[in-house]
Write a structure and sequence with these properties.
The chain is built from 28 helices and 26 strands. With 720 residues, the protein is an alpha/beta fold. The structure holds ligand C2E and magnesium ion (2 copies).
Length: 720
Amino acid sequence: MQAFSQAHPSQPARVSLLIVDDEPRYLDSTRLLLTPVVDGIDTALDGAQAYARLEQRLYDLALLDLHLPDTTGHDIMAWLRIHQPQCRVIITSGDDHIEAAIQSLRLGAYDYLRKPYEPEELIQTLRNVVGRIHLERDNRRLQQQIEHSEEWYRLLVNNSPDIIYTLDARGSFTFLNESVRRTLGYSPEELIGQDYLVLVPPGEIDHVRHRFNDRRTGNRATRNYEMRLRRKDDLLTKLSPHAIDNQVIVELSAMGMYRAQPDGDEEFLGTYGVARDVSERKQAEATITFQAYHDQLTSLPNRTLFHDRLGQAMVQAKRHAQNMAIMFLDLDRFKVVNDTLGHPIGDSLLQAVAQRLKACLREGDTLSRIGGDEFMLLLPLIHSRENVIFIAEKILSALKTPFNIEGHEIFIGVSIGIALYPEDGDNRETLIKHADIAMYHAKDHGRNNFKFFTHALNKALSGRLSVENDMRRALQEGQFQVYYQPQVDIESRRIRGMEALIRWQHPRRGLVLPDDFISIAEDCGLINPISDWVLGSICRQANLWAASRLPIPTLAVNVSPRQIEHPHFVDRFMEILLGGCARSDAIEVEITESALMRDVDGAIGKLRKLADQGVNISIDDFGTGYSSLSYLKKLPIHTLKIDRSFVQDLFRHQSGATIVAGIAAMAKGLKLHVVAEGVETEEQLNYLRELGCDAYQGFYFSHPVDAGKATEILSAQLPG
Ligand code: C2E
Ligand code: MG
Ligand code: MG
């Protein structure tokens, strides 16, 4: 019972009553009589008291005597109409004129009771009016509740981030929430009555119509159907090429609304649906996918995507018996740019190169950056070799004009290796590997050109691979040997130094010269352990000579660029040197100009460290590179070794002598020691003396010889 009364909305609240009558006895008896019917009863004996009461509170009901000493019931009624319109009035009066009653009702009285009346009559009348008041109150409350819940519902619907809509059976909007304004730029009013297809991009109308008609016939709901909707501005600018930006991707869930028919069928009333804007999520997903498949720096497809496209292109080519080509592109000397100008400029250069390369492509070609300064190009349809040559030449010439990056004029070349499908490989890995081999071949042939893959190249490569394996074994099994070639002072004819030159006593191939394996060792990283071994070996030899009390000449050791690039080059070098007990001022490091050019600043720093610890620095094969005087001045150099090609040219070309004389004069100016390499004859030696060289090295005095012979030569120098 308790629960019921709580839940009952029309539980009567208090009803207040004011009784106005000039007869005190009547007032008292009426109050008693009505107490069970009305909760709060006040009384007044005249108009003055009545108004005083009325000023204080609101009454639901007033029982007014028509004739009062200072006023009339009608006057109070008139006042009430203005100040307390909710108050219902029942007029009581001894006046039995019908006009009085009519007048009262006309003025808005609820009822008119003529005195004297039966108590039941009064009670009944009061019960009626109280009941009515309760009813009205309930009504008002209900109305408020309805208004409130409607407001609530509207609030929910309109603040939903999703578009909520209903369509009639023909597909016209009958309802849309406010979200449509935020999402698509339309007001709900603009769309109501319109076909939903106005929101569908023209290209997708057929598809969408099919989908929804299909759904409508069945009683199933569509869930999370992804589609595009046009924004209002898209309609305005539908010719704009950026129309795609004016579309919104939504995920739509829709449901048919049906009404059961008496015949058991269902009548289709329309559709109720919710569309969620997922554009941002889609955008984020697209960005993530893009990043996974593209290179961040250039936005070109990355290796993964390239592989994928290559696979697809192969399937196509196979199906249609077509030819295709891939190109492996590697920038020439990109590292120099990076090292000398810094990574930000290197990055900008890569971006600029990517731009130029893209301009060389046809539609359907894929250019990809697969790492560092390496690019791959897929040409999925080619008709002839000339086709490919044309594109390769176009690329080479596109890069001919220098790049201007932040005020730096940069020339960059590219080496291109080409592999053709199907003849050079019928799977991705082989094709890419062969393009790579061809690219190395292009690099070996002076760079900045292109080479097609050939099977002969492949053989050379596998030869290279076996050399690599053999070298590892050679290190372990002690097949390397150091030969020594004396450097002789031209004036005193005494041995000033010995150049250490490595030899490989190969079990099958016999004595292998450094030109046949040093560059391979550099490529595969074996150059570092090999060089360590050479340095250790000459230290041991120097100790042996010292023990035999032989004069120890300066020992020159060749250092390759790959060694210098190593971050711990200096420490490693000094560690071996000092560990081997050799004096650092008895050691000379020979370094070629090209090694210096790769990273001038890095090399200068490291060589200076060596020089600071007493090591001599010598520039090998001088004159063949592009060293400028400005570099030489910065370097802590002691010796210049004139390349043997100039010595050989001495009597062949006029230029030979000119160059040697020039180098010698320059070296004198810089107070450098000049050593001529490759001296084979006495005439050469005499001429070199005239031209101002300090020392020479060559077959004329001695071939490079093993340690035993070198010891003999040194012993022969001993006086007596
Ligand atoms: P390089 O430093 O310029 O060495 C001089 C080369 O000229 C040696 O060749 C030597 O045998 C050769 N030669 C000397 N006198 C004459 C001559 O009168 N006429 C002719 N035609 N040639 C002469 P080799 O020993 O074959 O070495 C070739 C190159 O290999 C060296 O050129 C050097 O760059 C490199 N190399 C040799 N040993 C090492 C080493 O231990 N480490 C490194 N990194 N490179 C080395
Ligand atoms: Mg040398
Ligand atoms: Mg040399």
